[in-house]
Amino acid sequence: MLTLDILPEIEALMDKQGVNPQTKEHLLKCSRFHTFSAPGLLIGVYMTEYALELLKAQPDEILYAVSETHKCAPDALQIIAGCTVGNNRLRVIPIGRFAITINRKSWDPEVEGVRVFVDLNKLKQYPIINAWFTNDPSFDHHGNVMPLLDEIFIAGRKILSYEKVMVQTEIKKKWKSVTCTMCGETVPDYLAQGDLCISCAGTNYFRKISI
Ligand SMILES: [Zn+2]
């Protein structure tokens, strides 16, 4: 397991492969946030850095991001690009592609952004990453883990490609508060179904138990 106990060992691998100090700092910071050095998270760090560079983003600039997977990549965007789930500048769309997009703020319906993705053609040069990424049965999740990280640090952004895209923006909706007549809690009107919250209207994610 790539727990934080072995972070010094992983850091030594970064040094061995000459990872630059800024990237190293991001890799370590993201690992701590994520609670372990997941391979996808490390690739996500390279993707986020690459997208920021292509966008010529300034430090502390307000940016918006999309992750096309819920796995790992969102955490690199949260830590490095400051696009978080809570500040509503990160959208996680469960498409399942290992890709991210970053764009600037805009009041227009569309805004130019940079989309970075793992390029399968480039991945062929890196057999261990390729086996892990494609979930190939030949990948040994125990024995191959450190060699996998080693190859990720060697590859860096060489397994990535990018494209410029127009991103559909999400216009902030004006809303009114609606009090649900069943549970008595309030929700924004655009999430209500009549005078009920969505949960009481039938899509509850929990059921109550008596205390
Ligand atoms: Zn309710």
Automatic annotation (TrEMBL):
Pfam families: FmdE (PF02663). It comes from the Archaea. Residues 33-140 form the Formylmethanofuran dehydrogenase subunit E domain. InterPro entries: FmdEsu_dom (IPR003814), tRNA_methyltr_O (IPR053194). This is Formylmethanofuran dehydrogenase. It comes from Methanocalculus taiwanensis.
